[in-house]
Design brief:
Elements: H1 2-12, E1 21-22, E2 39-42, E3 47-53, E4 62-67, E5 72-78, E6 85-92, E7 97-103, E8 112-117, E9 122-126, E10 138-141, E11 146-152, E12 161-166, E13 173-177, E14 191-194, E15 199-205, E16 214-219, E17 222-226, E18 238-239, E19 249-252, E20 261-266, E21 272-278, E22 284-288, E23 296-302, E24 311-316, E25 320-324, E26 337-340, E27 349-351, E28 360-365, E29 370-376, E30 382-383, E31 386-388, E32 395-401, E33 410-415, E34 420-426, E35 432-439, E36 444-450, E37 459-464, E38 469-475, E39 481-488, E40 496-500, E41 510-516, E42 523-530, E43 536-544, E44 547-553, E45 562-567, E46 571-575, E47 586-589, E48 597-603, E49 606-613, E50 616-622, E51 629-635, E52 642-646, E53 655-659, E54 665-671, E55 678-685, E56 692-696, E57 705-709, E58 715-718, E59 729-734, E60 749-754, E61 760-761, E62 763-767, E63 773-776, E64 779-781, E65 790-791, E66 795-804, E67 811-820, E68 825-832, E69 836-839, E70 842-847, E71 853-858, E72 862-868, E73 873-875, E74 878-880, E75 888-896, E76 906-914, E77 920-921, E78 927-929, E79 944-950, ...
Parallel strand pairs: 1-48, 60-67, 68-75
Antiparallel strand pairs: 2-29, 3-4, 4-5, 5-6, 7-8, 8-9, 9-10, 11-12, 12-13, 13-14, 15-16, 16-17, 17-18, 19-20, 20-21, 21-22, 23-24, 24-25, 25-26, 27-28, 28-29, 29-30, 31-58, 32-33, 33-34, 34-35, 36-37, 37-38, 38-39, 40-41, 41-42, 42-43, 44-45, 45-46, 46-47, 48-49, 49-50, 50-51, 52-53, 53-54, ...
């Protein structure tokens, strides 16, 4: 009857979908699309119990599964693939097989299988061949209606025995079959241990730690402990619980104290798992298991999360698996993790089936004939949908919105036969907790969310199928609601409701209710609104035919939501909305037969729908202002009864997720090609009974997730595990200045201004999603790391930050325009005293950090005395300031040249051609001197002349020029010490001597050639030079007239002292005039 009722329900139940916006991005290679869902393997029959073992000896755990309907056991070999297992063979056993165990009964090193037969009263042994095959069965009597069994050496003979829970007969309780080590169990009579109660489940272990194996049995009257003596005998049974119904027990160290404990699934009025904590002496203390309650089919005490602590893994009869994590110190978490796996769930098997080092969970769904495989991630979670809500309550409808406006998606759900709407608050991590219960009318069914009164807060509309009404709850933005009212449908039976902005911008949303006529002829979709006074208004209705599912969608992209519907005659209908009423539907054949579900999608410049018919999906799309037309049809891989469409992988194109309410299978179909095109389906397993799907980013990672109203599976959340399309930055900072505006996730353009003195800065970008890649001005930068210094020119500098999402498709560009100010100008005031000029003179503007250059020129008869100010230096006639950082003054001072004496043969001019900046003539030490010793064969009509240089660099070589009155017929010699005669003086040729006219040019070196203080590098050079006339007789010396003496005086005015480095011959100093 249950399956018939569900079939009738689905016949008129509508599959609704939330339409997700698809963002247009540049076309790139697409990333994988994946959801955190389990995988499944269709076994058929009625799979009920299983055991693990390596049957083909490849190092991976396999399964042996009991098919109660086919009276067989199946060997499922671990393949490591998507499904995880493949069937190696089915082997006959007795009628109604129950318990199964795997062990090496004949000692050949290969695993064998033992199975009990409830109807035949036997235990069947299949010997394994080590390759996944089993031998012909051999049966042994096991008592009346045997159920579960456990394997151990109970008599200490080194051979494995069987302990079997016996359900019926005079000796009901436990029977022990003694193994002979060759795979047989009839060598000696079995031992029957009557408990007086029906044995249901048995486990073995050493609870009193005496080294002998004991037995624990679960029964209809509690849990019994049988202490073994190691020789095949057992002490009288001890009941370690109250008179309780315990159909399942398991053994393990639950609290980590080193003593063996018992997990007992107590199923009295208050059904809940119980832990019996052993003390190592056969005694127990009782405690509950955290959040777990309800009716469970089995469980294990095992490290299911891979953290080294024991957890409790449980299977509900209603089709979910609950993992209760263990805590340090032996406790258990107050929050369990629940996963839907089907319409029912067998006792779980926990092992590393995938070979990745993390525990996985496998369960059987005997109602549908499936195996569900939940792969662990090593962090306490499993690759399966999570379940929330009220355990074992049938969830039939769901709506999504942020009811309390905290930025997290919440859901509203209805349960069958509950007459209420439940608000489940989202935690922002993909989970939900109960928030509010709203009493609705009789038969509360479909529910929708939207702003019906235009106050900016989300409201709810729910149709009540029994009393044929609609109720509206007005939200206040804090997660609570007030009732706006309840209105009846006259002659119509409301079935489903959606909410959309059917009138366009500036108007409140309307609810649209599909309601067939109670007489079964007419169908309508009626608009329902809320008046300004807050009351419900029953508005226009459009006539429809054969509706099976409908959704709001702006087909023509005019800003108003329209209605699209799938029909049982294979058409897709569209009702375009006007500002005041719904239009009549227009139908387009989908070409795939009777449709059962529909979901809409939209993106810029395109909108469309996916409609399912059995294992096919029809795709239709429309351009703005156009009607829907066929794109193509595609395979779904399952019988798709529920659809959701959106851009799940973030590549800009619509994808679709389909669910099969009959099998609990899920098909993930990625968009491909033009908008509306689809690729091949990827099948996963969601369990439960999918009734409706909604789409939102429940864990706020930038990817759209799915929440399913999943029958007894509760609220099932499929977390999108695709590579993230999030190309946003979480933060962006400059090293020396703040951004304008302050960083915000939705802003991509920023500016900043820095003073001229900031010539470079660094930038620190942080990606919002791990896995995104970042480049700054084309250079790859690790998220959260500081870039290398970025140089700044004066003016605008654009820094470009490009972020590419983890999926390799979505990208976002941020720009930071940094304006580096023009340099500040400082006034340098240049002045010159009497006797010369400075150029430029007066106020001169010099940029911050730059230098200024000034030319200093003495007037005739003057020389430069000093130039000061602005931290500068004088080189020749050029004065260069230091880097200017403030206003300053440059001042040049001059002094007169000394007056020459007109004696001897006439004036002599001397200058420095090349030398360091400070090397200059010492006038006091420069002039005529007494002639040294005679030069052989020559006369010295001009006598001798000495020049003295001071403030030179130690050891410096200086080039000088001397002009005599007349050098016709003369050569020039120097007189003084030399390297080969440092202690005495002699005549020698000047270094690099050149005579041009009356001017002699040569080199002198401090402490070297030409320096009378030979060897002393003290910055002072004393240099006597002697013009020598190489003539046989002395030349006449002319006598100067008065006019001649005046000319000589004028010539002396040209003499000047040298100041700074000289790069060409110039005469800057006058020495003396002498007569010979």
């Amino acid at each position: 009857m249950k399956s018939v009722a569900r079939a009738l329900w689905r016949a008129w139940r509508l599959s609704l979908a939330v339409v997700g916006l698809c963002l247009a991005v540049s076309g790139q290679a697409r990333a994988d699309l994946a959801f955190g869902a389990a995988t499944s393997l269709r076994l058929g029959g009625l799979p009920s119990e299983m055991a693990t073992g390596d049957f083909n000896e490849d190092g991976r755990p396999d399964l042996v599964v009991v098919d109660r309907l086919g009276s067989t056991v199946k060997i499922l070999l671990n393949t490591g693939g998507v499904a995880g297992f493949s069937e190696a063979g089915a082997f006959s056993v007795g009628s109604a097989p129950y318990g199964v165990a795997a062990a090496d009964f004949n000692g050949d090193g290969h695993l064998d299988v033992a199975v009990t037969s409830f109807n035949n009263g036997t235990a069947t042994i299949h010997l394994g061949d080590g390759s996944g095959g089993l031998s012909a069965p051999v049966t042994f009597g096991a008592g009346l209606n045997p159920r579960d069994l456990t394997v151990a050496d109970f008599d200490g003979d080194g051979r494995l025995d069987l302990a079997i829970a016996v359900f019926s007969g005079a000796q009901k309780g436990v029977s022990v079959l003694w193994g002979d080590g060759d795979g047989r169990f009839d060598g000696r009579p079995r031992t029957d241990i009557g408990l007086g109660v029906a044995g249901r489940h048995v486990v073995s272990g050493d609870w009193n730690e005496d080294g002998h194996v004991d037995i624990v049995a679960g029964s209809g009257d509690g849990v019994f402990l049988l202490l073994g003596n190691g020789a095949g005998g057992f002490a009288a049974a001890q009941r370690v619980t109250g008179d309780e119904y315990v159909p399942f027990v398991a053994a393990g160290d639950a609290n980590g104290d080193g003593h063996l404990d018992i997990l007992a699934l107590v199923q009295n009025t208050s059904a809940s798992p119980v832990l019996l904590l052993g003390d190592g002496q056969g005694g127990f203390s009782r405690r509950g298991v955290g959040p777990a309650f309800g009716r469970f089919s089995g469980g294990q005490i095992v490290d299911g999360t891979g953290d080294g602590r024991a957890d409790v893994v449980l299977s509900r009869f209603s089709g979910t698996v609950v993992v209760v994590p263990g805590l340090a110190g032996g406790g258990f978490s107050a929050q369990g993790l629940e996963y839907p796996v089907g319409e029912s769930a067998s006792p779980p098997a926990v092992a590393d089936f995938s070979g990745d080092g993390h525990p996985d969970i496998v369960v059987l769904d005997d109602q549908r004939g499936y195996l569900a495989n939940l792969r662990g991630d090593g962090a306490g979670r499993f690759a399966a949908a999570r379940a929330y809500g009220i355990p074992e309550r049938y969830t039939q409808a769901i709506a999504v919105a942020d009811f309390d406006e905290d930025g997290r998606a919440d859901v509203a759900v209805t349960h069958r036969d509950d007459d209420a709407v439940w608000i489940m608050r989202g935690d922002g991590a993909g989970g939900f907790e109960f928030s509010t219960r709203l009493d609705a009318g009789a038969g509360a069914g479909s529910v929708a969310a939207g702003d019906l009164n235009g106050d900016g807060h989300v409201d709810l509309a729910v149709v009540n199928e029994v009393d044929k009404t609609i109720m509206v709850f007005l939200g206040n933005g804090r997660g609570t609601f007030t009732v706006a009212g309840q209105r009846s449908f006259i002659g119509l039976a409301p079935r489903s409701v959606v909410i959309g902005n059917f009138r366009g911008a500036g108007y409140p949303a309307y609810a649209a209710v599909w309601a067939p006529e109670t007489a079964g002829v007419y169908e309508g979709i009626q608009w329902v609104g809320v008046s300004p006074q807050g009351s419900i208004e029953m508005l226009d209705v459009a006539s429809w035919d054969d509706v099976k599912g409908f959704a709001p969608l702006d087909v023509d992209q005019d800003g108003r939501a329209d209605i699209v519907a799938a029909t049982s005659v294979g058409t897709v209908g569209t009702s375009l909305s006007s500002a005041s009423y719904p239009g009549d539907p227009v139908y387009v054949p989908a070409g795939v037969g009777a449709l059962s579900a529909i979901a809409g999608w939209s993106q810029t410049g395109r909108a469309g729908v996916f409609a399912s018919a059995g294992v096919q999906i029809a795709s239709l799309a429309a351009a703005p202002g156009q009607a829907l037309s066929m794109v193509d049809t595609y395979g779904a891989g399952i019988s798709a009864s529920v659809l959701a469409a959106s851009d799940f992988d973030g590549d800009g194109g619509p994808d679709v997720v389909a669910a099969d309410a009959a099998s609990g299978e899920l098909a993930i179909v990625r968009g491909q090609g033009a908008p509306g095109g689809l690729g091949a389906p990827l099948l996963r397993f969601v369990g439960g009974t999918p009734e409706q799907m909604v789409v939102a980013d429940f864990n706020r990672d930038g990817l759209l997730d799915i929440a399913i109203a999943n029958g007894l599976g509760g609220i099932t959340v499929l977390v999108n595990a695709s590579p993230s399309p999030n190309a946003a930055l979480a933060s962006l900072a400059l090293s020396q200045v703040a951004l304008s505006p302050a960083f915000a996730g939705g802003v991509t353009a920023y500016t900043a201004t820095v003073p001229h003195g900031v010539a470079q800065l660094s930038l620190t970008p942080v990606a919002a999603q791990a896995g995104a890649s970042i480049t700054v001005n084309g250079v790859v930068v690790t998220s959260g790391m500081v870039t290398a210094p970025l140089p700044l020119a004066v003016g605008a500098n654009v820094i470009q930050v490009d972020v590419v999402a983890e999926n390799g498709v979505a990208r976002r560009t941020y720009t930071v325009t940094v304006e580096r100010s023009q340099p500040a100008l400082h006034t340098v005031t240049a002045t010159a005293g009497a006797g010369g000029s400075i150029n430029p003179a007066g106020a001169v503007n010099v940029a911050e950090g730059q230098t200024g250059a000034f030319t200093v020129t003495p007037a005739a008869g003057y020389r430069i005395a000093a130039v000061t100010g602005c931290g500068g230096t004088l080189a020749g006639s050029t004065y260069t300031t230091a880097a200017v950082t403030a206003a300053c003054t440059v001042q040049a001072r001059f002094e007169t040249l000394p007056t020459p004496t007109n004696t001897g043969s006439g004036p002599v001019n001397v200058g420095v051609v090349d030398g360091s900046a400070g090397c200059q003539l010492d006038l006091a030490g420069t002039g005529p001197v007494a002639a040294p010793a005679p030069y052989p064969g020559a006369t010295m009509p001009h006598g001798a002349f000495r020049l003295r240089l001071i403030n030179c660099q130690p050891g410096e070589t200086v080039r000088v020029a001397v002009t005599f009155p007349d050098l016709t017929g003369f050569t020039v010699k120097k007189y003084g010490p030399t390297p080969d005669s440092p202690l005495s003086s002699r005549y020698y040729d000047p270094v690099n001597l050149q005579i041009s006219g009356n001017t002699v040019t040569y080199d002198v070196t401090d402490g070297g050639w030409g320096d009378n203080s030979f060897g002393a590098q003290d910055g002072t050079i004393n240099d006597p030079v002697v013009p020598v006339l190489l003539a046989p007789s002395p030349a006449a010396i002319p006598t100067l007239s008065t006019w001649g003496l005046g000319g000589l005086a004028a010539l002396l005015g040209l003499l000047a002292l040298r100041s700074g480095r000289r790069t060409s011959a110039r005469f800057v100093g006058a020495v003396a005039q002498t007569r010979f």
